[in-house]
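Folded chain entry
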Amino acid sequence: PASLNPDCFPAKLWQLVNNPQVESVQWDDRGEGLLIDEHLFLREVLEPEGGDSIFKTKSFPSFIRQLNLYGFHKVAKQTVAAWTGAGDAAGTAWVRHHFYSPHFKQHRPELLAHIKRLTKTNRAKL
């Protein structure tokens, strides 16, 4: 939506998941949650070759904290031990995370305006 700052975390995340060139973040099958390949996300988004991260961190745990501060909840974590990615040795373990927010849905960008960063004041209201 036009009223949303394109530099805010939810807008950046929305652009990322809807970018067909980004392989590390995808919509789940229902378009109601995010699937994040931790290993690929680190290389592709947080620590890209020859570039800066679109987020203010290069740490995956810090990125997860941001998701939590914006009201995303972890649905599941899946560890796969026998995956071979580009440039990796066979058998490299990787983790795929699944996150959900009621205001972050595929084809519903107008819901992004409802995502607010949790602050002490916001928590007290909740």
In short: Residues 82-88 have pLDDT under 50 and may be disordered. The longest strand covers residues 73-83. The chain has four helices and four strands. The chain has one domain: 9-119.
